[in-house]
Amino acid sequence: MEKMRAMVLERCGAIETNPLKLTQIDRHEIKRPNEILLKIEACGVCHSQLHGIEGDWQDLGIPPQLPTVPGHEVVGKVIGIGEQVTKFKVGDRAGITPLLEACKECQYCKEGKEYLCESSTITGESFKGGYTEYITVTEDFATKVPEHMKPEYAAPLFCAGITAYKAVKAAEPQTHKKIGIFGIGGVGHMAVQFAKVKDCEVIAFSRSQNHLDVAKRLGADDAIQFSKNQEEFLKKLKEKHGMLDAVIVFAPADIVTDTAIKAVKKGGMIVIATVGENPAFMAFEEKTIRGTLIGSTADMEEVIKICDEKNIEVITETFPLESANEVLKKLKDSSIEARAVLIP
Predict the structure, then answer these.
(1) What is the pTM for the complete model shown?
(2) Do residues 39 and 4 make contact, with C-beta atoms less than 8 angstroms apart?
(3) Which domains does the chain have, with CATH numbers?
């Protein structure tokens, strides 16, 4: 059996202890007629992966098994195809989202919301993860990436990109014109641009001045420093912009979610894209609170198309596969400007 290099997580632990170990594991091979084999060119590094590796989400059953190879936003070259594959040919570039596979039979799959499938397989929560050199996937759950799109640009689109796109879509930008985006990191910086594509007035919020500068450069109409002094923060926001029509929350802190809800007008929309405590919610204000999760294969195709046509900018820093621990540590310390990408 041929081998491949992989950063393997044997047991959860603080990223400072370097829990990911460079290991030689069996190289993935095509086992089913509808699978393709990718030689990975780039894999984005997602904040949710950090939570999984450090054990923060074990109560949610993440990771579902150990050892595991993390990494769930993957782009590579097709180097092999099963005999029934029609969507790809050898030499194509393709990408995989966190949704590696779904059953195709259940209510969610039939509604075109296969990412909600109860028996789905998640990329990066078994040996099928992106922090390695090869991966297989069935053709229906891979998306074509244009040849001219650089892999380090495309990889973050498969989680950060689709998450940002879907969160903006969930905020109903056609009716909610003044949108606040809380948290301008790997996902938030793309949400700013997707909201601008929809002609929204975008106000970005972050604790980091660096991230606020990024948001402004990418088209945000205003960028305001977040402060835990809620009363003062909301007072300043109202004086400057009035109440917001909608907000999207990417910052994984309960105080941020709570503040975001209070920044929205009555009847407005709150889209929450993080895990946290249930915030206080007043029914009589007629606000809508909505969760959001990646998106469908059709959504993913739309993301690639918009990014290609509108020249959406993806801010990335690239690192070798072996430095995954150090990169995640940088992410934990908020010292990555937007999206880190591992190159095997």
Answers:
(1) 0.95
(2) no
(3) 3-159+314-343 (3.90.180.10), 161-291 (3.40.50.720)
